[in-house]
Amino acid sequence: MLFSPVNTEELFNLPHMMAQNVIEQIFGVLKRCFHILVCPPEVDMVWQAILPAVLVAIHNFI
């Protein structure tokens, strides 16, 4: 089903909505593969920020 915008505000928000859907799907795949994202360990904030990028790289390598 394709959403057709009816005004300029909806036209502006359409790409953002589509990007948000893709990002949510990607995190859903990562959560199914790597359960550490469901219940993250209590580690330093720097490591928590790096963790998703590392898991994406591992997922793409596998």
Automatic annotation (TrEMBL):
This is DDE Tnp4 domain-containing protein. It comes from Piloderma croceum (strain F 1598). The lineage of its organism: Eukaryota, Fungi, Dikarya, Basidiomycota, Agaricomycotina.
